[in-house]
Amino acid sequence: MPSDTETCKILKAAHAIQLVTAITFLPTILNQLFTLLTYNIGEEVGLYIIRVLIHIINMIHEAGRKEILQAYIKFVFLSPTQATCNMTVHEQLGKYLPILLQPNNTDFLVINKFMRHSNFFFEIMIKSMAQYLLTTGRIKMHRNERFSKEYHERIKYLLDVIMPYIINKYKEMPVETHELNKSLAQLLKHCLTFMDRGFVFRLINSYVDKFSPGDPRTLHDFKFTFLQIICSHEHYISFNLPMMQSRISPRENTEKEPECNDLMNEYCLSEDFCKHHFLVGLLLQEIKISLNEIMQIRKVAITTLRDLLAKHELDDRYQNKGQLSRIASIYIPWLEIVLENLMRLQSVHDSSKIENKHNDINRISTSSSFLATKDIANSTITAGTPKSIHRLTLNLDTQSPIRASIHLRDSTYFAAIAGQGLVNGYSCTSIESDTSTMSGASQSNISQETAIIRESVENGISDKKRHSRSLSVTQASPRCDKLQSSEVKDILLCFLFVIKYLGDHQVIAWWQQCSDSEILSFFTVIEISLHHFKYVGKRQIAANIINNSGKPRTVKAMTLPARMAPPDFTTESPTTGTLQPHNTVTRENLIESDSGKMYQALLEANMATEVGLIALDCLGLFCIHFKDALLADDGENPIMQKLFNIYLSFLQVGQSETLLRHVFAGLRAFLNNYSIALFQGNAALCGRLCYELLRCCNSKLSSIRQESCALLYLLMRSNFEFTSRKGLTRVHLQVIISVSQMLGNVIGLNNSRFQESLSLINSYASSDKVMKGTGFPVEVKDLNKRIRTVLMATAQMREHNNDPEMLVDLQHSLANSYASTPELRHTWLETMARNHARDGNYSEAACCQLHIAALMAEYLKLKKVHTWGAEAFDSISVNISRDERSLKLDAGVQDIHYTEYLLLEQLELCAEMLEKAERFELLGHLYRLIVPMYEEKRNYEALANCYTHLAQACNKIVEVTKSGKRLLGRFYRIAFFGSAYFEEENGQEYIYKEPKVTSLSEISERLHHLYSEKFGLENVKMIMDSVPVNVAELDSKIAYIQVTHVTPYFDKIELDTRQTEFEQNHNVSCFMFETPFTKDGRVRANPEDQWKRRTILTTQYSFPYIKKRIVVIEKRIMELSPIEVALDEMRQRVQELEDVALIAPTDVKKLQLRLQGSICVTVNAGPLAYASAFLDPALSPQYPDDKVEELKDVFREFVKICYTALQINSKLITPDQHEYQEVLRENYQKLCQSLSSLLGEPIWSDEQVGSFKRNSAALFSVISGANSHTSTA
Would the keyword NAD turn up in this protein's UniProt record (predicted)? Predict the structure, then answer.
């Protein structure tokens, strides 16, 4: 062999090799180079060999012939034998590669090429290692004895020199670092096959330890690509030692069991767990950390776990149920990780909640504990997962671009996991074994004290010692930002995989370790899963596909294609552990065709059903083994509430027939085991179940109708048996309430399907032999009859669905018919409130809520819980006590459970609605009821809120009074004529309250449109004047509607008490409109011939009320003589001038318009026309003296207020209006002169200014800005 110097020259010259030559003689060249490498050569020669190898491999790659390199590795390479060589190829590569990669090496070009093609060298190393073990027989030795200690050190050193390139060069050389990272993962993965696994685990830990939370996204991608490749090892499951023990003990006694601590360590990411299940522990730790990163990083982490679980499920070696159960057991800590992030899953769930849940809100009113338990549930969920207790090293990374992060790893901790410090221990058994043992666990120098936390569980549950669910820390404070919908789906998929395959005994054992709040959180995740994976239908799926097709597709870093394409691992490239995107049949590619869309719909339907079955299994298992926990407080506890919510979710979310059959079976089992929760104490659960079952009785699918009828019948029968065969009062009442709710929400029930369901229930009762001879069949028939009565009574509702006034009238009459059954009356009032709020009628909605509050208060008064009832609301509305005081304590109220807590909630809701209605003045009266209740409870926070709200309301009153911008509505008299169309409404008059400033034309157009749609355009005619209608002159084939604007009417005494605009628009029941006429039949004439007809209408109730229209019950007509008309007109003018002149700030434009119309001297119109007609000495004797004198007094007042207004105007005009002011002054003087001559006395002179003290005082107060008069007409 030549000298080293000569050899180096030859190797340097080899760089000039032609590509054709290299390809033609590639096996020979490479064999010679690898053989030369194994001789006892100097360091320089070794490095030259490596450089030549890198150069040749790079040439081949650039020529696009990398397949011949793969063929060489697979079929040609043979490590030189020991006889001829002193060293092995893998040892020499392990020696020279680190030297080549040292930071002080300036040959960057060679290093870059090596990084790009590192996979070739690492595969040669692995094959050399395998051949070495086989040829030497060392394959039969213990793993820690197979390779020399020196070789172990070289591998470790190789990793140490490679890591800085991956960590620091990813920006400059993204492709090279990516390839190097994958190659390194492949190397370590194969090392697990041949070497001491404890040693390789230490290397893996060393790799992962180089990364930190808050690293750039690329580094996170590298880390998870690495972990993904490592976890793709064929013996991954064996490495992670699925646990065997799973003792089940009663939940109350778990603390006393000596095995409890050991079991707990297997159920969370504890030190022991990570020691026994190193790879999965490391993976879960990293995913847990990544959940605190940005979305792209989170997605990579979650996808890694999802694809790994998919692999397990599709692995034909593990298709046995027991095997999958063992596999799922190593992922149990994932359950805890999901629970810790529960609040981040929930926003997506909340936004997609189905509308069917509105009935829950209606039920709140009559359920004493529903709100309370809901609050408890929420609070326990929020604080449910105990704060992580971390006893390892914390290192704040302040340079993180994302946030101040925490390094989770501690080198000594992970050293123990990887088994460092083992001396001559069996690190694991041979490669063929199914299990793998990490020795020396007892020698670990890391100790970890058991962490115990105390949780005070509400509802009287005693404090119990609980292990912290997490023994690793994720972040100093929990993340609150919400996860994306796609992330949530993947997280839930992994969660459901674990739940699906875990053995029943393991799930039960896990539940036994959980606190109540954690159980609640667990089932909340199950509930969220049901909503996330609900089947939305083929159309929606196709629409989603079309919407998403335009979006750029993400490159997927997955080990598996999408679910629909079965994986083919036989074609996997030996150079990579991941399938590349272009080789993957992605979901997007497949579903572009119609058949793909159908297939996608089928997949989603199957997924929805599978998720539902997993959830049902969980519910059934919990109900069987934790009966005592569910029946605590007779079922009035948060866990029962949560489980029941999930059962109802199945009926609310669209499900397949197959799944619903299982759901009904589950509900039957629940009903048989938990009748106490349904029939004793609170009625909310029973009521909600009745509502959903009745909805299903109306289903288009006959199988669902039959199942729901059978369950509803079983519910009735169970209720009957529960009451010792005395009756089924609760189910009876709740069914009627549910029917009423459904009709209130305009769900059509009066159809053949629902009638068929009722008949089916009747037939069950008739044919039930066990129940014959009891009163049960009669009770069932009576309930059926009541349901049909309600259906008939509400058939009109659908007919008048588009007529809001008529619909509310019908609902009101139904509510009144249930006066003795508070819960039913409550239901209809709730429905009316919802309809009013939807239409923007907030005053009426507020009245409905106030009536509900009064109903509750009256019940509590009768039960002697409170001293006051509906009468306490008299100061708010005179209607309330009139309607709500008819309650009696009889059979109708025995099953309701109003409490002071619910009354407070309702009163707070009333306050919100009154504010929306802008009736701020009523809040003071309302809070006089609320405040004493909070004072008694010493709830100072609530009191502070009350007074704050009151202060804001008072400020609002001041603001709207000054601005005049509050509009409390307008009133119109509506009369209907036409017996062929209006039936009982024919000839009936109503007062309609319309919102804001609805004009006469607007309400006329609305009514015309409404009734034209109902009766036909040609059959409806509007009467737009207020003249009395002669019915005999009307066409019987036409529907006539007369619309007249009316204003609230008060007599003089009442007007003195109603000074503000609000007082003149609240609790009003008298209205007025006026019609001018003359004795000779004309409408208009001269003042001396002009008469006026004043019509005063009184309504049945005061406005505002729970209805927008109220029937007129009394009509009075007054005819005013010409002089009385003049008196009325002049009083109105004086009032108008006072309103504009004596209220600050003054509206200048309005003031000038009023002045101009009042002092303009016109003989035939205005004030002077009235004076000329009735005060002229020649004409006045024709009229009563008292009326003439009264008119004179009014004119004197008129002159005074005109003078005051003129003076105010002089202070407010702009410089260019002085001439206009002079004209007004001259007109005023002319008016005074004319009136003086008519009255025969001087009306006004400058000398007499001082004699008008009242108006002067008013003038000065106005000029100074004081407000001395606040009434408005």
Answer: no
Q: What is the pLDDT of residue 347?
A: 59
Alpha-carbon distances, residue 717 vs 498, 648, 663, 769, 896 (angstroms): 39, 20, 20, 12, 21
Contact 457, 516 (CB under 8 A): yes
Question: Which of 755-764 are b and which e, b meaning 16 or more Cβ less than 10 Å from the residue's Cβ?
Answer: eebbebbbeb
The candidate with the shortest Cα–Cα distance to 576, out of 308, 185, 1039, is 185
Phi, psi (deg, nearest 5) at residue 1022: -95, 135
| DSSP annotation string for 1067-1088 | SEEEEEEEEEE-TTS-S---GG
Per-residue buried b or exposed e for 1085-1097, using 16+ beta carbons within 10 Å of the residue's own CB: eebbebbbbbbbb
Q: How far is CA 719 from CA 647, 725, 1251, in A?
A: 19, 8, 86
**822-847 per-position pLDDT tens digit:** 888 898 899 999 999 998 999 999 99
CB atoms within 10 A of CB 612: 25
- For residue 751, give both structure tokens: 């159809």
DSSP string, 563-620: TTS---GGG--TT-SS--GGGS--HHHHTTSHHHHHHHHHHHHHHHHHHHHHHHHHHH
Residue 146 contacts residue 194 (beta carbons within 8 Å): yes
Cα separation, 789 vs 385, whole angstroms: 51
d(CA 304, CA 236): 15
The amino acid present at 516, given as its one-letter code, is D
| Nearest of 134, 281, 136, 122 to residue 191 by alpha carbon | 122
Please tell me the predicted confidence (pLDDT) of residue 82.
57
Residue 802's pLDDT is 83
Rounded to 5°, the CA angle 1147-1153-1156 comes to 135
Per-residue confidence (pLDDT) for residue 815, from 0 to 100: 83
Look at residue 10 in the predicted model and tell me its pLDDT.
93
pLDDT at position 786: 82
Cβ count near 919 (within 10 Å): 24
List the one residue out of 857, 870, 945 whose CA is nearest residue 898: 857
Q: C-alpha angle with apex 421: 417 to 426, nearest 5 degrees?
A: 80
Q: Which residues of the chain have pLDDT under 70?
A: 1, 82-85, 243-263, 347-480, 547-593, 744-748, 750, 820, 889-895, 1161-1165, 1244-1273
Q: How far is CA 647 from the centre of its chain?
A: 19
| Residue 245 · residue 260 · CB < 8 Å | no
Q: Helix, strand, coil proportions of the chain in percent (round to 5)? A: 65, 5, 30
CB distance 221 to 229 below 8 Å: no
Half-sphere exposure of 1263 (CA within 13 A, CB side): 15
Q: How many residues does the chain have?
A: 1273
Q: Which tokens is 997 given? A: 């400033």
